[in-house]
C-alpha cells in the first residue's frame, strides 16, 4: 500500500524538478534579451519625446520625488527626460516626460501601464499625452480624463514631480 502512494509522489516530484530546471534555464537564456529589448524601447521613446537631442546621459540627483525613477540630460543641452513611475487605478504607470531647458514640457509618453482598457488606458492615448506639450510648471489647461480620474491624476502628479525638480531648486545640471 505504501508503495502505491510513494511511487506516484516520487514521479510527480521528479517531473516538477525537471520542469522547474527547464524554466530556470529558459529564463537565464531569455532574460538578457528581454532586458536589452526594454532598454532599446526606452531609448527609442526618449528620442521620440525629445527629437532634437543628439543623445542622453543619466544624471544622478539626491532626494528626488518618489515617482522620479531616472533623470537623463541631453548631451547637446536641449533638456531633460524624466522616467517616472506612478500608481494608477489598475497598477503602475511608467512614463517619460521631456522638459526643455526653458522649463516647458516638450512631450510626455506612456511606456507601460496596466490600466483598465477603455478607461484608465486612455492615459496612453495621444490626445491625453499631447495636452502636456508646451506646459510650464503650472500645467494650465491640463485636465484629468472623465471616468479615469485616479489614473490621469496620478499621471499628472508624476509630471508635476518632474517639473518640481526643474523649478524648485534641485540642480539637474550639476548631477
Describe the protein in words.
The protein is α+β, with helices and mostly antiparallel strands. It has one domain (1-175). The protein contains three helices and five strands; from the N terminus they run H-E-E-E-E-E-H-H. The protein has helices at 2-49, 126-130, 149-167; strands at residues 56-59, 68-74, 79-87, 92-100, 105-113. A five-stranded antiparallel β-sheet has the order 1-2-3-4-5, sandwiched between helices. A hairpin with a 4-residue loop joins strand 3 and strand 4. The longest helix has 48 residues, at 2-49. It is elongated.
In short:
By secondary structure, this protein is of the alpha+beta class. It is 41% helix and 22% strand.
Note the beta-strand portion.
15-25%
Oligomer: single chain
Task: Give the neighbour order of strands across the main sheet.
Answer: 1-2-3-4-5
Order of helices and strands: HEEEEEHH
Helix percentage range: 40-55%
Total domain units:
1
User: Globular, elongated, flat, extended or rod-shaped: what is the shape?
Assistant: elongated
| Count, helices | 3
Give the helix/strand class. alpha+beta
The total of beta strands comes to 5
> Between the first and last Cα atoms, what is the distance in angstroms?
71 Å
Low-confidence regions: none
Q: Mean of residue pLDDT? A: 90
Largest sheet: 5 strands, antiparallel
Radius of gyration: 22 Å
Question: How are the elements arranged and paired?
Answer:
Layout: H1 2-49, E1 56-59, E2 68-74, E3 79-87, E4 92-100, E5 105-113, H2 126-130, H3 149-167
Antiparallel strand pairs: 1-2, 2-3, 3-4, 4-5
Amino acid at each position: 500500500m505504501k508503495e502505491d502512494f510513494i511511487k506516484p509522489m516520487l514521479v510527480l516530484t521528479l517531473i516538477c524538478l525537471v520542469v522547474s530546471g527547464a524554466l530556470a534555464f529558459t529564463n537565464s537564456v531569455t532574460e538578457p534579451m528581454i532586458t536589452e529589448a526594454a532598454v532599446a524601447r526606452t531609448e527609442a521613446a526618449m528620442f521620440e519625446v525629445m527629437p532634437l537631442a543628439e543623445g542622453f546621459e543619466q544624471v544622478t540627483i539626491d532626494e528626488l520625488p518618489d515617482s522620479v525613477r531616472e533623470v537623463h540630460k541631453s548631451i547637446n543641452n536641449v533638456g531633460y527626460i524624466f522616467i517616472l513611475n506612478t500608481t494608477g487605478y489598475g497598477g503602475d504607470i511608467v512614463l517619460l516626460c521631456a522638459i526643455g531647458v526653458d522649463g516647458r514640457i516638450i512631450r510626455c509618453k506612456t511606456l507601460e501601464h496596466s490600466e483598465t482598457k477603455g478607461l484608465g488606458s486612455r492615459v496612453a492615448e495621444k490626445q491625453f499625452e499631447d495636452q502636456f506639450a508646451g506646459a510650464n510648471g503650472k500645467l494650465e489647461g491640463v485636465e484629468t480624463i472623465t471616468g479615469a480620474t485616479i489614473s490621469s491624476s496620478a499621471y499628472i502628479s508624476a509630471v508635476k514631480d518632474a517639473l518640481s525638480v526643474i523649478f524648485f531648486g534641485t540642480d539637474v545640471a550639476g548631477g
